Amino acid sequence: MELKELSLSHFRNYDQADLHFQPGVNVFLGQNAQGKTNLLESIYALALARSHRTKVDKDLVQWGEEQARIAGLVENRFGKLPLALSWSNKGKQARVNHLDQPRLSTYIGQLNVILFAPEDLDLVKGPPAVRRRFIDIEFGQMNRTYLQLSSQYRQVLKDRNAYLKAWSFGAKKDQVFLDVLTEQLIELAAKLMLLKKRFLKELGEAAAKVHLEVANQKEVLELQYKTAVSSTDLTDLETVKTALQQTFSKQAEREKKQGTTLVGPHRDDFVILVNGVDVSNFGSQGQQRTAALALKLGEIDLMHQETGEYPVLLLDDVLSELDASRQTHLLMTIENKVQTFITAPSLSEVARSLIKEPKVFLVKDGTIEEEGQKEQEENHG
Q1: According to the annotation, is 33 in a ligand binding site?
Q2: Which domains does the chain have, with CATH numbers?
Q3: pTM of the model
C-alpha cells in the first residue's frame, strides 16, 4: 500500500499544498512549529478520519477559514483509489473514489497507517486507556468486524451508563430494561474480547521476533490480556458470555451506586512482559523503548498478514528518541518493505547512511519545497 499524492486545503497552517511521494522513504525536514507534524497528521487523518492530536475537528481548519480538506491518491494491489476528507460547520464528509461514505466504518481501512511518535512510549509506561486506544485504532484498521462491533459496543455502553447514572441519582428505573441493555452489552463484549485475545496473541508473536533481534537475543517479550474474565474462560463465545453474566451479577449493586458500567472491554488492558517481568513497572527506560519499538514494528507484519497489504509508516520525530542501534534496527526493518514518512529537524549520520535515496521535503512556516528543487529549476532555466 502506498500514498502517491496528497493535497491539502486550509488544513492547520497550510493554505494549499500538493505533494507527490515516492514508494520508499519520504522525509519532512524543518525546525519546530513549522508544520512537519501537521503533514503527518493529515496523512493519519486521511486514513482514520480523525486526528491523533485533537478530538476537536475545528482545530484542523485553518484560522479564519470555514472548511479544511485533505485528498489523497492511494495505490494498493487492486489499483489506484482517490480518498478525500473535509471538515466544515456542517460536519465531516468522507469520500472513496469520489463517492460519499455515509458511515465512517466503510471509509476506514482504505489507507492503513501506523504512527510512531515519542508519546508512544506511553504504550508501555502509560495508563490502560492508552493501550485500549492503541488496540481499537490498530485492529479497527485491520478488521472491519472489530470496527463495527466497537462502534455498536460504545453506543450500548453509552445508553447503559446514562441509565445507571440516572439510577444512582435516585430516579425510578426499570430493572427489566437494564437487563436488556446488559444482555446487549454482553453479546457485543464477548465477541470483542475474543477478537482482542486473537489480536494480542498475534501481535505478541510478531513483536517478540522483533524484540529478540533488537535485544540481541537476550530478552523475550510477551503480551498478556488483562480482563475481568478469567483467561481460561476466553475460549468460545458462549463460555465468555456466561463468565460475563456472572461478573455483571456480582457488580450489579456497585454499578447502580456508582452510576457506571464496571465490566467489559472498555476496562481491559494488556501487560507487556520482558523475561517474565512487567516492563511497565519494573523495566529500565531502555527496555521500555525497545518494547514500544517492537510493538510498532510487529504491527507492520501483522497488518500485512491480516490485510494482504503493508501499511504506510509515519515516524514523527522519533529517530531523535532512539539510540543508534535502535535507529539502525528500525530503518533496516522498513527498508524496501514499507512506504515511510519521517519528520525530523535534521537526519542523523545513522539515518543518512541507512536510508537509500530518500525524497526530502523542506518545511518552513507552512510552505513545502523539495530538497534540490531550486537547483533543478535553475539548471533547467
Answers
A1: yes
A2: 1-112+309-381 (3.40.50.300)
A3: 0.87
